[in-house]
Amino acid sequence: MLRSLAPAPGRAPDPLPLGRALRARWPGPPWSRPLELHLPAHGRGRGLAPDLAALLRQPPGSWDLPELPAIGGLLEPVGAVADAQRACAELLGAERCWFGVNGASGLLQAALLALAPPGSRVLLPRNLHRSLLHGCVLGQLRPVLFNLPFDPASGLWRPPDAPWLERVLAAALAQGPLAAVVLVSPTYQGFSADLVALTPLVHAAGLPLLVDQAHGGGEALAAGADLVVLSCQKAGGGLAQSAALLAQGPRHEPAAIARSLLWLQTSSPSALLLASAEAALRHAGSPAGRVRRRRAEAVAARLKRRCAGLGLPLLRNHDPLRLVLHTAALGINGLQADRWLLERGVIAELPEPGALTFCLGEVPPPGVARRLPRALAALVRQQGGDPLAPFSPPPLPLVAEPELALDRAWRAPALAVSLAEAAGHLAAEPLCPYPPGIPLLVPGERIDAARAAWLAAEALRWPGQIADTVKVVAS
Ligand SMILES: Cc1ncc(COP(=O)(O)O)c(C=O)c1O
């Protein structure tokens, strides 16, 4: 999430603006604090994994250690980091685990580069996180993008089912061999794919499956996925940037993963972030972690019952701690709803044109089951209206490859044209509202008239997030 509070007009420049912003204390009484329903899921420290919280109570900085012999590093066979990675792999049912200090982003890239040699084609869903696209550039991979089921009522993409993925695989393989397949499950909004049904289809095609579970807890391993990436701050009690890559089975080379981690990770990984990954994964799998999770789910259930009692439409998802308000059904754009709520002290995680997603976190904020339904009811009273018209599905083929190689298009001399004039041109950069960080257009894709019209309509729905111009390759 990237949203900042504007500095007070007329205030003298602050010599330490970030430090001051992070240290700021809420000036009012505790009950008037903003309702913070965004990531990281530890919610300002309330839900930090206990071992991590204990570490942070040590003298500040005392834990910021380099790769001393006793500690070792991510790629060392011995030392505390190696022991911690082994223990987490065992706990989660993986054969191997590598911690990451550059978020799920860094580990998705390392995993992709390990599975696919330069020049190979990789099958990626249209709701891919942009880090995978960047991984394709770094690894000189050819992304083959597959379309997903689309819900016109909410404007959201949904996970594919088995018949859908079968069609996708057949269409992609008809155009040439693939090196790997990626799926995202659960999505940012908490929609999960049936990985038990999908994984065998990928394996039957002789391909390895990488699952982006940045918003999940590693369930993809039990479904047989080969590589799984977790984010310890999105679905756990870890700090931002701490993450884990889990691996099992014969369809990957551990040495290739170690090599791509060497290429992509810093040579001075933060001991604090490594400890954060260890503590978050261990806590989630512990009895105390399960009790904490059940308590959070009970709060979420109470909250959802109150919302239902007030007639507030919530989208059904699979993550009890993600609440997705179907704003389109209330006649409100999710970005508009977000702005209105922000001004009234309710901070959501993910505004989209048809929905607004709130993350309740590992330990939901006190009073959330009372305060949030009240705020949402007020939103409906003041901003609500007739349901929005159904969203038009993106006019995309089932599978498509950029016409010009991704890295060449992204580096090519470019010019900005209005979306109205974009038809016929090749995109030179992605069009990517953030969050969620899902590109609506990928460099090297040819923009046809239907796509240009769809993008122009999308730009109106993402005010301030999508410009009305797009960079295209200069011909
Ligand atoms: C589905 C998905 N995968 C990966 C990421 C990247 O995670 P991080 O920001 O921790 O690198 C995100 C971030 O929002 C995401 O939503």
SSE topology sketch:
Blueprint: H1 17-23, E1 35-36, H2 50-56, H3 80-92, E2 96-100, H4 103-115, E3 121-125, H5 130-139, E4 142-146, E5 150-151, E6 156-157, H6 162-174, E7 180-184, H7 195-204, E8 209-213, E9 227-231, E10 243-247, H8 254-264, H9 271-284, H10 287-309, E11 322-325, H11 334-343, E12 346-347, E13 350-352, E14 355-359, H12 368-383, E15 399-400, H13 406-411, E16 414-418, H14 449-461, E17 469-473
Parallel strand pairs: 1-12, 3-4, 3-7, 7-8, 8-9
Antiparallel strand pairs: 2-10, 4-15, 5-6, 9-10, 11-14, 13-14, 16-17
The protein binds pyridoxal-5'-phosphate.
The site of pyridoxal-5'-phosphate (PLP) has 15 residues, from helix 4.
Description:
- The protein has 14 helices and 17 strands.
- The chain is an alpha/beta fold.
- The protein has three domains: 33-44 and 293-383, Aspartate Aminotransferase, domain 1; 56-284, Aspartate Aminotransferase, domain 2; 402-473, Ornithine Decarboxylase, Chain A, domain 4 (Alpha-Beta Complex), CATH 3.90.100.
- It has an eight-stranded mixed β-sheet, with helices on both faces. A three-stranded antiparallel β-sheet has the order 11-14-13, covered by helices on one side. Strands 1-12 form a two-stranded parallel ribbon.
- Helix 2 (50-56) packs antiparallel against helix 9 (271-284), helix 4 packs across helix 8 and helix 6 runs parallel beside helix 7 (195-204).
- The relative contact order is 0.14.
- The model has no long low-confidence stretch (mean pLDDT 94).
- The protein binds pyridoxal-5'-phosphate.
- Residues 103-105, 129, 131, 184, 188, 212, 214-215, 231, 243, 435-437 line the site of pyridoxal-5'-phosphate.
